[in-house]
Amino acid sequence: MSGQCCGTDCAGGNSGLRDSRYRRVLWIALVVNAVMFLIEIGAGIASGSSSLLADALDFLGDAGNYGISLFVFSMALRARASAALLKGLVMGGFGLWVIGSTIWHAAMGTLPDAGTMGIVGFAGLVANASVFALLFAYRAGDSNMRSVWICTRNDVIGNIAVLLAAAGVFGAKAGWPDLLVAAVMAGLALQGAFVVIAHARTEMRRETGKNASPSHA
């Protein structure tokens, strides 16, 4: 089991050092995402931007995901896979929420403030790119590590999309670029949720098969 505790490239005495580094990276990511949630939720409400609000809730979800990852870090593979399954379901729920929010803003004809979107979106991009760089070395681990990596990857793409939406709102003087980005972010969340859930279920089935197999002396 020790060979599975921190991904496919752990080896011998280096696993403890790798685990310690990964735990430290998760704590940094947790703090960054919690702070950015507070910033973006306020900016999203003030600017009327659905893509910023979606990104803010994404930051909140990621902070919770990093917290779960830290909690199950030293547990068995099945416990980590169960946590990844929960995170996948949360990601899927987030995607469905963004779809509903996008439809509501479209019906209301909201025109967000492009300037606020651009400034806060850039701050979010810097924050997520920093976390992305820290997590790059852990992208090929178990389903729990993979779920963390996918969330961070989607965040970077989402922040770039928010910046494009800000430019679109500013140029078109209309809210549809903001709504389009919110829809794209929903699609990313649903796609990421599918990958994480599938990977976690595969690991859980594998562990169940091991436990069910009779042992021979």
Number of E-state strands: 0
Task: Specify the CATH architecture.
Answer: Up-down Bundle
**Measured distance between first and last alpha carbons:** 20 Å
Gyration radius, in Å = 19 Å
As residue ranges, the low-confidence spans are 1-17
Helix content: over 70%
Q: How many discrete domains?
A: 1
Enumerate how many helices there are, as a single number.
Answer: 6
Percent in strands: under 5%
Structural class: mainly alpha
| Assigned CATH class | Mainly Alpha
What is the fold-level CATH name, i.e. the topology?
Alpha-lytic protease prodomain-like
Sum up the overall morphology in one term.
Answer: elongated
* Major pleated sheet: none
In CATH, the homologous superfamily goes by the name Cation efflux protein transmembrane domain
Could you report the average pLDDT, rounded to the nearest whole number? 76
Order of helices and strands: HHHHHH
Provide tags for this entry:
disordered N terminus, 217 residues, Alpha-lytic protease prodomain-like, 6 helices, 0% strand
Describe this structure in words.
With 217 residues, the chain is mainly alpha-helical. The protein has a single domain (11-208), classed as Alpha-lytic protease prodomain-like (Up-down Bundle), CATH 1.20.1510.10. Helices cover 82% and strands 0% of the residues. The protein is built from 6 helices and no strands. Helix 3 (77-108) packs antiparallel against helix 6 (176-212) and helix 5 packs antiparallel against helix 6 (176-212). The protein starts with 13 loop residues before the first helix and ends in a 5-residue tail after the last helix.
